[in-house]
Write a structure and sequence with these properties.
3-stranded antiparallel β-sheet
Length: 367
């Protein structure tokens, strides 16, 4: 979710794929996030018939889904880049959640462990709403920038959580992740193979790690949501490249946004760039509308898709692609939040909240 990270798309079918691209049942499940989004492969042989001694071939235009499946099959055959010498991520000790002063306004989900429903309403703002979205986005960006300055070997993710929490409440805002569906911390910290929703704990960052810090603040009734993947010490060239290309994918996704543009262009542009480097684009987690409500329509798919719908001036939503060096399939830990790549390969993510304008998109989470 955009908790500070991504939101799993609720889809009617849940499947994975064999090496030849055929749909198979999947055992992956994330109880609070709904089903993963996957598609079965459509046949693409074309039709043939004879007419007056001539061979006539009726070709069928390849769809976005079929193209995505072909690319996945080709990528599986090529294999993936391996990163050596990195032990699997392990859960550390999670300390109690931090208090928030009573005078700070809290979002309506605080106090309940139930996962809020995704609002079906697109969030389109008037001038006052835009001003408040800008303020929330700017604060989130400042907090994220500060958190990034703390990143170093031996620092614990729990220490990052404390620093983020304090900066947000000092600004008179509420850390949106805290208490969202029972989430116990004020920020998400996703290390190495963790795709998203990592819970800050006592684990120390190690030289060579990468870490996504995902910050969302609730200020004056509006949420601002952003994330960035940081390098910890001396990081391998393979992981540096993954991080760089993931940020470029976010930029390319934003570049196609403007009033009247179709949402599916975002996933197409991101996929095209990621595929140049052989990276996988995670399909399970998505961007979302954000504003007065933490998560709403539109659901933003980062991979190739045929999802209908167009952007509207004054609308705000997040774009937050996750790329991997290996499998895009995931496993969720028993804490029901931490989601890691199924093969242990590294993952990187970047996120911005944007405002749709007549001619383009304004990035709200900058400072």
């Amino acid at each position: 979710m955009a908790l500070a990270a991504s939101l799993a798309y609720r889809a009617p079918l849940k499947c994975s794929f064999s090496s030849n691209g055929e749909a198979l049942p999947s055992s992956n499940s994330t109880p609070f996030l709904g089903d993963s989004l996957s598609f079965s492969r459509s046949p693409f042989p074309g039709k043939q018939s004879l007419s007056k001694g001539k061979l006539v071939v009726f070709a069928k235009k390849i769809s976005g889904f079929e193209e995505a499946m072909k690319i996945r099959r080709d990528r599986d055959k090529q294999g993936v880049t391996k990163v050596k010498g990195r032990p699997p991520l392990r859960r550390g000790r999670v300390s109690p959640r931090l208090p928030v002063p009573d005078h700070i306004p809290k979002p309506p989900y605080v106090g309940s462990n139930m996962m809020p429903e995704i609002s079906s309403e697109h969030q389109i703002h008037d001038s006052e709403g835009i001003a408040r979205m800008r303020a929330a986005g700017e604060l989130a960006a400042r907090v994220l920038k500060y958190a990034g300055t703390l990143v170093r070997p031996s620092l614990t993710t729990n220490e990052i959580d404390k620093a983020v929490h304090q900066m947000i409440i000092d600004a008179g805002a509420y850390p949106s992740p805290l208490g969202y569906g029972g989430f116990p911390k004020s920020v998400c910290t996703s290390v190495n193979e963790c795709m998203c929703h990592g819970i800050p704990d006592s684990r120390q960052l190690q030289n060579g790690d990468i870490i996504n810090i995902d910050v969302t603040v609730y200020l004056n009734g509006y949420h601002g949501d952003t994330s960035k993947t940081f390098l910890v010490g001396d990081v391998s060239d393979a992981m540096k490249k993954l991080v760089k290309v993931t940020e470029e994918c976010l930029e390319k996704g934003i570049a196609v946004c403007k009033d009247g543009a179709s949402f599916k262009k975002i996933g197409k542009r991101i996929s095209e760039h990621a595929e140049k480097y052989g990276y996988g684009v995670v399909e399970r987690f998505v961007g979302h509308g954000v504003g007065k409500v933490f998560h709403s329509e539109p659901i933003i798919l980062h991979h190739r898709n045929d999802k209908p719908g167009c952007m509207v001036e004054g609308q705000t939503f997040t774009i937050e692609p996750i790329l991997t060096l290996g499998s895009i399939n995931c496993i969720t830990w028993p804490d029901n939040w931490t989601t890691v790549t199924s093969d242990g390969s590294p993952a990187a993510q970047f996120e911005h909240t944007i405002l749709i304008t007549r001619t383009g998109a304004e990035i709200l989470t900058t400072c």
